[in-house]
Amino acid sequence: MTTESTTRSYHYSEFHPRWYRPRVSVYWWLWQRHYLKFILREISSVFVAGFVVMTLFQLAALKGGPQAYADFVNSLASPIVIGLNVIAFLFVMFHTITWFNLAPSAMPVRLGGKRLPAFLVAAPSYVLWVAISVFVSWLILQ
Amino acid sequence: MQKQSNEAFFWVLFSAGGVVAALLIPVQLFLFGIAFPLGWLQAPTYDHLMSLVRMPLVRLYLFVLCSLSLFHWAHRFRYTLYDGLRVKHLNEVIFTLCYGGAVLGTILAGYLLWTIA
Amino acid sequence: MADTITLEIARYSPERDPEPHFQSFQVPVHKEWVVLDALNHIKDTEDGSLSYRWSCRMGICGSCGMMVNGEPKLTCATFLSDYAKHGSKIRVEPLRYFPVVRDLVTELSEFLAKLKKVKPWLIHPNQPPLAQGEFLQTPAQVDRYKQYSMCINCTLCYAACPVVGLDPIFVGPAALALAQRYNMDSRDQGSDDRIAVLAHPDGIWGCTFVGECTRVCPKHVDPAGAIQQYKLTAVLEWIKSFVMPKGADAK
Q: Nearest C-alpha of chain A: how many angstroms from B99?
């Protein structure tokens, strides 16, 4: 919208006075706590993809033989990589928690006519997550 | 019935990927990315991991984990670019890069898991 | 608690201003006063040109929505004492993401058009004759859509939703929740008529479940929940459209 000089002219569009249309800043998500939380949740997907990339490297290293895998394990031991993985882990946990907590909104569960409270619907997901994590750990750590 | 958009398909992939990522990624990332490198837990030997990876069920598990997680990323990242950076005019480019990346990763995962042993 | 509090109010007059600016007013703090009382006080005693919408002053008409310190609120339900306690100023602006007509008044015609777009009425082509009696609904059937019928069209959810701000064509939380109110009503048979508008990139697929709409809704309508539930429905409809195409050239 052009900024006309504000002398004594009235600023009219075709049928009404000139409405003010504020522009949304590119940094809209930085200025509100809730928006920032949302964007961080969305960015967690990058770390999810990052984990897949790490796993693909791990598989390629396994395929390459014991020496290749040993090299891979060494690269994971550098402080920078560990630091990155800690950050990645935090983001992935953020994804897990927000996902389980939000899923009940999409699937209202009705028992005897009344809708179950969200945390009850979310609880089985957490239980399942713990169970799977324990099982997978057991498989790997044997 | 009137025609509806095909977004539903991508949303299903995103949701399935979200569930898989939420349930399965934390433990594996914690073990291989933090606990083993820091020595908190005894890292598994090469032979043990190979014996695991030889099992068809494990390979299927890893394939589903990798593929769906990538499609989850593709969908979410695509919308983040639209909203966060407001680059909606690059629609087709973003779409191709995101889903193309997911497809490539899926093919790579499939190849690695098929030929690993 | 302080005796007076400062209100910084956005002023915009299309005849005089190229863009809005803020004007400060001192307002006495009474225990039971809300921001709307403060605005009325200012208009009565200090500046009669201050323009804003309000009506019922009890949270049911949906007219008095404004941004209060960056949060979309009903000004008839926002107490001055909550802000005076912390010694802070109160910044009052028109609801975000709408064109501003003047001062605190927003332009709502786009919003009303979006409401109309989702066909918010009972669609029942083969209505039985009146002599056969009225529709009967069990409490369980009412419960399925009752929450979504509580919307007062205050547009706080549109001011909260970043997608509305980034993509003005996005149908928006209230309209989508309203569509669900009819889709879930057992008397309605119009789900198919609404699909094209809802299951569209500017409909539910534009929503990224930020969840702000549900957080700010004064009537606890939970539009975010309504939208996510419809996403599941839309997926089923999409699958059905391949497995059992219902006569592609009908309608």
A: 12
Contact criterion met (CB < 8 Å) for C199 and B9: no
Judge whether B67 and B28 are in contact, CB under 8 Å. no
How many C-beta atoms surround the C-beta of residue A102 within 10 A? Answer: 18
A26 is a domain residue: no
Q: Is residue C99 located within the same domain as residue C168?
A: no
Give me the interface pTM, i.e. the ipTM. 0.92
Q: Which domain does C192 fall in, by range? A: 109-243
Distance from A6 to chain C by nearest Cα, in Å?
6
Does residue C113 share a domain with residue C81? no
B109 contacts B67 by C-beta, under 8 angstroms: yes
Same domain, C113 and C232: yes
Instruction: Determine whether the interchain pair A10/C15 forms a contact, defined as Cβ–Cβ distance below 8 Å.
Output: yes
Q: What is the DSSP letter of A25?
A: P
- Given a cut of 60, whether residue C149 has pLDDT beyond it is yes
A4/C16 touch (CB, cutoff 8 Å), yes or no: no
Q: How many domains does chain B have?
A: 1
For position A132, which CATH number holds?
1.20.1300.10
For C170, the 3-state DSSP assignment is coil
Give pLDDT tens digits for C231-242: 999 999 999 888
Q: Does residue B1 lie in a domain region?
A: no
> What pLDDT is recorded for position A12?
67
Q: Within an 8 Å CB–CB cutoff, is residue A108 touching chain C?
A: yes
The answer to whether position C249 is within a domain reads no
- Report angle CA A25, C93, C16 to the nearest 5 degrees: 90
- The minimum CA-CA distance between C202 and chain B, rounded to whole Å, is 10
Residue-wise pLDDT tens digits, C96-147:
999 999 999 999 999 999 999 999 999 998 888 889 888 999 999 999 999 9
